[in-house]
Every structure is written in structure tokens, then in C-alpha cells.
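Researcher: Let's continue the batch. This sequence belongs to SWIM-type domain-containing protein, and it's 270 residues. Same format as the previous ones, please.
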Amino acid sequence: MINESHWQHIKHDFLHYFHRPRVDLLVWILVAKLTPTYQRKLNNLTLDIGRYRGLAGWRKAFKQEWKKLEWRPITLPLNPRYRPQVKQWACTCPSQAPNRFLLCKHLVQGVKPKRHILVLEVTRLRTAPFWQHPSLIPKTDLPKGYVDRDFIQVDIPNEQQLDPQQNEPEDGNESDGEEEEYEYASATYTERMDELIGKLRSFADGLHYQKQFRDVGFLNTLEKHGSGFFRMLDSCLDKERRQNHNGGAPTRTWDPKAASAMFYRTQPKD
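Model: Same format as before. Here are the C-alpha cells for SWIM-type domain-containing protein:
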């Protein structure tokens, strides 16, 4: 396969200019044209040459997309359904999931990095946060609606700071506020999730009761107004089935059909 790929490179870049080339011409192309190209690529990958190396092809498109989103206006106050979280590089707006680089204007404008350095050094990850760089930290003046806004670091008054000779807080006092804050956030999430689960179960019981009436009008209304939820439901169940089926193909990372199931964690297989 590798030899075939190299031959295609020779054929399309050089040999199509000549009709039935001589063997000595082919040898000259291999020695003078093809070999130096691969030698430069190998040197860029293995040697510390003291200068910028050739960038990956996607970084140019990433820079263009980032620059475009930096200047796109954001409507304030934010839509209550949008919950940008810069630290996790996740946003519930409909623009991030289908984006090639998982960017949206809320996340891009929630940080203030030096773009020319970011483009050269930023690292892609397969799980949240999808982009990693020291400069990707939330701004201190984020508008209301950002999840990071409630967790911005503040200056500690002098009277509340630790003694320089004291390395740790006294026993029983470490991170009490952090624990309470985490417990409050967990309780809020649990309450919201329990409420949704209760509603879905009650509604499922109601749907089961509707079967006896065979009302086509209600069924059509249900399919029309619940189409978005049902598409998400199908995506999550399909992801569950693929993850727990050894013989099937896994869900593709950038599959637009599975965008709504991106944050859905599948259950472990029994």
C-alpha cells in the first residue's frame, strides 16, 4: 500500500508531463525530485531545527474559523437554553456540535488568548475539553449565562490568607466552602434530573393509557411536536447499541447524526 501511494505521487506530480518516459528520466525524478521532498519531511519530524515546523493542514482552517467567530455578535442576555462552559469547552447552543472544530462564538469570545500563538500550539483532544492550551481560560468579565462565571477566582483578603509558615489549613477546615458549593451544584443537578425522569415516566404511563383509544390525531400531534426529542432519543439508543455490540461499527466522532448524543454516557454492558 505504501509503495502504491508513492507511485501515485510520482505519477500525478511528474510522469503525466511525459509520454512513455525513459528509465533514466524516472531515476532522475526519484533522486532529484521525490527523495528530497521526503527527506525534508523526515527532518522536520525528527530533528530540532530551531525554527517553526510545517503546520498541520487543519490549523489554517482552524485559524480562519476562530477569527470569524471572534467578531460574530452575541445577543445579550444569552438564551436560557445556552450554557457555555469554557473550561470544559462545551456549549449547548446548536452551533458547536456540527462545527468541524467544535467551536462556537460563545466559547471563542469567552477566552482572550493570543491567536497567533494559540494556532501554533493548541492541542486537540478526543474528550472534553476538546481543545487544550494554557491561554484557554475564562475571561473575568463573562456575561450572565456562562457556567464559568460563577466559578471565577477572586482575590482573597489579607485577613483571610494563610500564614506563610502554614502550608495547610487546620484540620477540619480545608475546602469547606468548596465542598458545600459542590454539594449544592450536585443537588441542583440531581433535582433537575429526577424531575425530568419523573415527568418522562408519568408521560410514558399516559401514552400507554392512550393506546386503547386509537386516536390517530393525538399520535400525529405527538410525532410532530416531539420529533426533536425523538431524534435525540434515537441517537442515544443507537449509540448505546453500538457501544455494547462487539460486531458493529462504533459511533463516528464527527457524525452529524450523533451530535445530540455527544454528552450521553452509555451504560456498561452486563
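Researcher: Any comment?
Model: The chain has four domains: 2-40, 57-151, 176-213, 226-270.
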